[in-house]
Protein: TRAP transporter small permease protein
Amino acid sequence: MIGLMRGYVGVVDAVNLRIGRLAMYGIFVLMGILLWSSISKTFFLPSLWTLEMAQFVMVAYYILGGPYSIQMGSNVRMDLLYGDWSTRRKAWFDLVTVLLLIFYLFVLLFGAISSTAYSLGYWGTEPVSYLAGVLFGTEEVGRLERSPTAWRPYLWPIKVVMIVGMFLMILQCVAEFFKDVLRLKGEDI
Structure:
């Protein structure tokens, strides 16, 4: 069992490390978009797509960088008491709080799935089975949701990024849970 936990942690940490490192470069994409927005508004006709594309890039940067942040322990913590605790006590506390975080992320994942299904033209009550049907070719895509702005981009791509990001965060939280279990067993991680 310990070997399986170590293997899972190794694979998930490796995947989220690579995706997180790639997502870090999203800040440069965001800067480029905002720079172009400033230049086009000053010297040319203003671009309609820049503000919304900057929002999409920021969402991808934040959501895909979240698992990496959890992995590196760089997420925000209230350190009033936690910093003075022993490693064992921290592991117990983290074990409980990561379960609450996993529950919260499952709620967010279901919301992201429902929102994505809606953006693909599904108005029913079974968004998970609909998206599975779309993936396997048994369901058809309906009228695609578009943004109400002047640019009117399709919204499903960024919503798919949200699903992927939430899923990766859940995987990373389970890896953190396993790390805490291993710490409590006295294993070196």
The chain has one domain: 2-76+85-184. The mean pLDDT is 91. The two ends are 15 Å apart (CA to CA).
